[in-house]
């Protein structure tokens, strides 16, 4: 499966199959949330939240690819990511794009 954030793939002609998406809502445990809260007092990278968001993006991408595979797609073009805070320490991540089939 080819994944790109452009509306084309060099050297490939394709037909669009439709939009595909994947999403997840992730949270950190209370203990880590408290330690990350202390980190905001002194500044610096919130590594636990960074790991949480990386994990969420990977899972959302995996789910998007699974949806494209169910459509027999060869690639996904125009991939985009969106995120939103759901509550303190929890975020939704959505990956979406257009599934395509090579000619």
UniProtKB/TrEMBL annotation:
Pfam families: YbjQ_1 (PF01906). Coiled coil: none annotated. Belongs to the UPF0145 family. PANTHER family: UPF0145 PROTEIN SCO3412, UPF0145 PROTEIN YBJQ. This is UPF0145 protein GC105_08730. It comes from Alkalibaculum sporogenes. The lineage of its organism: Bacteria, Bacillati, Bacillota, Clostridia, Eubacteriales.
